[in-house]
Amino acid sequence: MERSNKRARFLRKSKESVKEAMRSRDMLLAGVTKAIETLDKTINLLEEQLEEWYSIYFPELKSTDKIKFARLVTILDLDDIDEKELSSLVGEKKASEISAVAKNSLGAKLSANDLAQCIALAKSIVSLDKQRSQYEEYQKKLAEELCPNVSEVAGPEIAAKLVAHVGSLYKLALLPASAIQVIGAEKALFKHLKNRKIPPPKHGIIFQHVRISTSPKKVRGKIARALANKITIATKADAFSKRRISAQIKKDFDERYNEIMAQYEKEKKK
C-alpha cells in the first residue's frame, strides 16, 4: 500500500514537472515573439530617422527595401563611389544609375564626422535586422517543438503569435474556434460590441496566413473561420494528446478552402 502511494506521488510530481517545463517553454516562445515585434517597431522608427537624416546628404537615394537602404548608406561615399561593391548589393544596372545620380546630387556636403554618425545609425539598423532574423529562426524551432500541429497547419510564425498573445499553449487550447479566429483583433471587436452598426472583425492574427491575406475580401471571413476550426483541433492535440495529426487537419482545411473558392467563382460567374 505504501509503495503504491509513493508511486502515485512520484507520478503526480513527474506530471507537474513536465507541465512546469512546458509552461517555461511557452514563456520562451512568448518572449522571443514579443522581442521580434519590438525589434520590428524599433527598426521601422530608426529607418524613418535614417532616411530623413541621410536625405540631407543624398536626397535622390530611394529604396522600398528599408534594410537595403541602410546597407547602401554604409557603403556609399559620393566622393568615391565603389561601383563594384555597389553592384554586389543592387546589381550593375542600379549601381550605374545611383553612381550617375550621385555625381549631380542636390545634397549638402557633410563633414566626415557628420557622415560617420549617419553610417553608424545605418549599421545599427543592419545589425538589428540580423538579430531579428536569428530570433525568427529560434521562434520557428520553438514553435515547431511546442506546437507542431499548429505550426504545420497555420505556420510557425502564426502559431508563435497566437501562443504569445494568450500566454500559453494550454490557454490557447481551451479557447473556442470563434475566439481563436479574432485573436489580435480585440480593439475592433470591442468597437463592434459598443456599436453594433460597426461590423465585427472577421480575423485577427490568422489574417497573416497566405490563404486568407491573398484571397478576395468576400471570402476571407469563411476561410478564416475554416482555419480557426482546424487550429482549435491542432492546439488540443498539441496541448493534451501530443499526437501528430497535422497532415489530416491540413488536408481537411485544403478541401474546405477549395470548396469556398469554387463556390466564390461560381457566384462570380453568375
Number of helices: 13
Output the CATH topology of the largest domain. Helix Hairpins
Q: Specify the CATH class of the largest domain.
A: Mainly Alpha
Estimate nothing, just give the exact number of structural domains.
2
Overall 3D shape: elongated
The CATH architecture of the largest domain is: Orthogonal Bundle
User: Beta-sheet strand percentage?
Assistant: under 5%
Q: What series of H and E elements makes up the topology? A: HHHHHHHHHHHHH
Tell how many strands the DSSP assignment holds.
0
Query: How much is the average pLDDT?
Result: 89
Low-confidence segments, given as residue ranges, are none
Secondary-structure-based class equals: mainly alpha
Radius of gyration: 25 Å
Main β sheet profile = none
Q: Topology, pairings included?
A:
Elements: H1 2-54, H2 66-75, H3 83-90, H4 92-103, H5 112-146, H6 148-154, H7 156-166, H8 169-173, H9 177-181, H10 186-194, H11 210-213, H12 217-241, H13 246-269
Provide the descriptors you would attach to this structure in a database record.
mainly alpha, Helix Hairpins, 270 residues
Produce a short descriptive summary.
By secondary structure, the protein is an all-alpha fold.
